[in-house]
Amino acid sequence: MGSLSPWHWAIVAAVVIVLFGAKRLPDAARSLGKSMRIFKSEIHELHADEADAVVAPRVPGEHCRATRASAARNIPRA
């Protein structure tokens, strides 16, 4: 039970063409490509939003371990 041989792929392709017809296959491929482009752009935006959240400026008055440590060593904050 290994991978599919070329004959298996040919049979699968023939069944798909018979079921969906040659006319609808290009439309389906075009639709799939458009969906993949939208998905990629959304993933790219998600990663960009995460990167922006990491480098976002701190809220004034927000305390964290680094500000307490710099205050304890009398190091001025930038």
Short description:
With 78 residues, the chain is mainly α. The chain has helices at 6-20, 24-54, 65-72.
Provide a descriptive summary of the structure in words.
This protein has about 80 residues and is mainly α. It has one domain (about 5-70). The chain contains 3 helices and no strands. The radius of gyration is 28 Å and the shape is elongated. The model has no long low-confidence stretch (mean pLDDT about 75).
Helix/strand class = mainly alpha
Please give the number of β-strands. Answer: 0
**Average pLDDT, to the nearest integer?**
77
| Largest pleated sheet | none
**How are helices and strands ordered from N to C?**
HHH
Radius of gyration: 28 Å
Count of alpha and pi helical runs: 3
Estimated share of beta-strand residues: under 5%
List keywords for this structure.
mainly alpha; 3 helices; 78 residues; elongated
SSE topology:
Layout: H1 6-20, H2 24-54, H3 65-72
